[in-house]
Amino acid sequence: MNKDIWIIAEHFENRVRPVTSDLVAFARKMGGEVKAVILGHPVKPLAEDVAQKTGCEVTGIDSPGAAVYNSEVYRNLIKKLCERNQPRYLLVPHTPLGWDFAPALAVDLGYSSISAVTDFNPENSTFIRQILNGKLLEELKSPPGCSAVVTVMPGSANPEPDNTRPPGSVKILEFESPPVKTRTIRYLPAKPGTVNLKDAEVIVAAGRGLKVPERIELIRELASLFKRGAVGASRPLCDQGWLPLEHQVGMTGATVSPKLYLACGISGALQHTMGMKNSSLIVAVNTDRKAPILQVAHFCVNTDLSKFIPVLIKNIRKFRG
Amino acid sequence: MKILVCVKQVPERESRFRLDPSGKGYSDQGINFVLNPYDEYALEEALLIRERLGQVEITALSLGPARVEKIIRRALELGADHGAHILTPESYYLGPGETALQIVKFTRERGFDLLFFGIISEDYMRGQTGPMVAALLQLPFATAVVSETISDDLGLITVERELEAGAREVVELPLPAVLTIQSGINRPRYPRLTDKLRARAQKLEVITGLEPLPPGRCAELLRAFFPPPSPAGTFITGALEEQAEKLIRIIREKTDVL
Ligand SMILES: Cc1cc2nc3c(=O)[nH]c(=O)nc-3n(C[C@H](O)[C@H](O)[C@H](O)COP(=O)(O)OP(=O)(O)OC[C@H]3O[C@@H](n4cnc5c(N)ncnc54)[C@H](O)[C@@H]3O)c2cc1C
Ligand SMILES: Nc1ncnc2c1ncn2[C@@H]1O[C@H](COP(=O)(O)O)[C@@H](O)[C@H]1O
What we know:
By secondary structure, chain A is an alpha/beta fold. Chain A is built from eight helices and 17 strands. Chain A has two domains: 5-174, Rossmann fold (3-Layer(aba) Sandwich); 197-319, TPP-binding domain (Rossmann fold), CATH 3.40.50. By secondary structure, chain B is α/β, with parallel strands linked by helices. The radius of gyration of chain B is 22 Å and the shape is globular. The N and C termini of chain B lie far apart (60 Å). At the A-B interface, helix 3, helix 4, strand 7, strand 8 and strand 9 of A face helix 3, helix 4, strand 7, strand 8 and strand 9 of B.
């Protein structure tokens, strides 16, 4: 085993996805030699793009079976590469592609598997990750002599601007398509929504702290007081059918950055905050003084939303005259 | 057709936590434990398949200390046919690889056609167990499943798996297969009284003794700790009226939306 850190680059429809640069930044923070691996068909232009943007030495794995993502193809081909030259760490983005193949790849390789990490502590060579929806963190280590597959939460490191380093070298390896059982049939793009969260200046977002669906009216009323106000939601509200899916903010919903984001009864799970943490002003209304949303909120009203929001509505009305 | 649903007991979402004496996890003292919400969706999907196809036998399996019996019974109340419990010692830390290995051992020779998992457990949030079990059994799998259909000859399952920002992809897998189920795929039901009574009386299969993990396969857990106090956030204090007035002032200072 060498000391290398390999990152698996992600791409979609012939474009390298930005999460790749996050991953490179995370790996560089860890220290050691960082190399990138990308799978595709044809892979050369993608590999060159990664080398150009990140300055990493890139290995492109070209195989007809890797033209679109397939977990079995990814596992099979990455395993072949690791058998030639075993890295210390294999970093994979914690995205719907990464979390799909990474744990199974770890089993195939006999590596340890650590998922959804948000930080690395270079002093002890440990990884930090959230548990209990962010209420606690845990610190884990892949023992010396043991390689690890690690999935890294998007946004866990600040990427360097593109092209800050001289382009890395590119090597292309060609492999036949391995036999697979799983077939990817087609891609279904998101359905266009009628609620345009991206253009809203103010988003009043509701979470499980609402307790009863009737309180959505309060949220709607508050949002309607702003010229470009819209209603956002955490996933459980959409899952329960309290609001249509197009209101959902977060990893699997919309990514937004309004001037004001008012998170009402939302605990602040990473999958939610990923979609709203770049809002200019974030205010949380939450009965829990320790809710993880406070890690991203600028202000917090530590009060029952069903009592506070009516008073806020009344005061905004009064102020408006 | 036989379906295995792996169900985990997790703390209720609004719980407040303390560290346990080992400093490696949360203390379960005073915690109200429930069925992992994602597993509730997984179980519901299995029940819907049984309603669609008839002739389906559903086994709910959980690993954990004595207290997890409660959620295995919950799964029976909801409609699972059998309940199985792999008993672990109290306060025992189960890593992802070790968990997967026990599940794999359980499945041997039971001929499951489908193995259902939650996409993630709400306590350890690893999202690893399902894909690891699939890899160990060399079965095809799909994660983050938000819809499924099974072919008439019961040979294939076609699923939609969720990608980012509302996109999906359609994947086709031959049975037997492993799925991890994402929330929102269905609306989990409430138990019926007759099922509650049945569940109370039903015998569970209890398995003791854990299969040891081959060395070097698992990451070492060093400690659990509370996140450092929030760097930026300021509390807006006072009575309701005062809080509202202060907030309006802040919004006006920092933005032009009011
Ligand atoms: C793969 C994956 C993708 C996901 N994608 C998304 C996504 O895109 N978007 C998303 O939102 N989630 C997503 N989730 C779910 C996410 O992990 C959390 O479960 C979810 O965000 C929690 O929603 P919540 O904050 O509304 O509920 P909870 O976590 O239950 O929080 C409720 C909050 O309300 C507070 N509260 C309770 N009562 C009151 C009251 N009276 N007044 C004020 N506050 C109160 C509580 O203190 C608590 O903080 C995803 C999960 C997975 C596994
Ligand atoms: N102790 C356990 N007992 C039963 N099922 C489990 C256990 N741990 C994990 N699982 C299953 O694996 C899924 C994902 O868990 P995790 O990998 O911990 O996020 C859960 O939703 C369960 O279906």
